[in-house]
Amino acid sequence: MDHLILKPKEDRRLRQGHLWVFSNEVARHPEAAAGDLVEVLTAREESLGSAIYHPHSLITARLLLADVEELDQSFFRERFSAAAGLRSRLFPNESCYRLVHGESDWLPGLVVDRFQDYLVIQTTTAGMDRRLPVIVQTLGELFQPRGIFERNDSGLRGYEELPERSGLLFGEDPGPVSIEESGIRYLVDLLHGQKTGFFLDQKVNRQAAARYASGTRALDCFCNLGGFAFHLARAGAANVEAVDISAAAIERASENCR
User: I need a labelling partner for 177 at 20 to 30 A (CA). Which of 10, 12, 37, 244 fits?
Assistant: First the structure.
């Protein structure tokens, strides 16, 4: 494995737990391609662990918090299993949540949202995008979904020189799917809705906002499918108004309200 060597004192932030190496912190770049694994060394050549490398990105390396030799099926199986175990404790008896959330699960540049029997993937780094086939294979074996989609139509991919694309990667495309999140039902378009189809990363924030809703007047700006509005209304808000610039989003939120 090639070495990336930092400038003097540029390891201090990394030792405090930050996982990104910026291009202006590097003394010597490795002879590695975008998405390769490299070992990050301090100016004194002390190892800080393995990282995913990109020679042309502002974020030159993303640490994996361990001496990882290869991003293979064994690596992904271990980290997906750990992520699933955490969600089962956080969201018992629920089947819609963000299963993988990038660096928070030591998987930089990878998002996986679970919508009951379907999974939606975003790979925003070259390292994860190169390994999309093994990611799909491992997710399929671990979780037995009926379908896996990619929503790689985010402009963030441009920072790592990746094209935008979306589509079905595995299984069946059922069209819009009916899901239940925190006891509320939604009709969600996994392939054409915003982001991965629904803002599952806001799940706990919707639950938190509902605790303060009783008897209040509430405004849900940028409501998308109405997630915050429905939580507030169910929690006893006296009046809830949902607003979005997208007519299509308002139409879908109205359908979900019925």
Answer: 244
CA–CA separation, 100 and 123 (whole Å): 11
Q: What is the CATH number of domain 199-257?
A: 3.40.50.150
20-23 contact pairs (CB < 8 A, 24+): 20/59, 20/61, 20/62, 20/63, 21/51, 21/59, 21/60, 21/61, 21/62, 21/63, 22/58, 22/59, 22/60, 23/57, 23/58, 23/59, 23/60
Percent of the chain with pLDDT over 70: 100
Q: What is the pLDDT of residues 141-198, one digit of tens each?
A: 999 999 999 999 999 999 999 999 999 999 999 999 999 988 899 999 999 988 899 9
* Confidence at 258, pLDDT banded by 50, 70, 90: confident
CATH topology of domain 3-63: 2.30.130
Residue ranges covered by each domain of the chain: 3-63, 73-177, 199-257
pLDDT digits (tens, 9 = 90+) for 198-235: 999 999 999 999 999 999 999 999 999 999 999 999 99
Query: In degrees rounded to 5, what are phi and psi of residue 25?
Result: -100, 0
CATH fold of 73-177 reads Transcription Regulator spoIIAA (3.30.750)
Dihedral (Cα; 79, 93, 195, 246), 10-degree rounding = -170
162 neighbors 126 (Cβ within 8 angstroms): yes
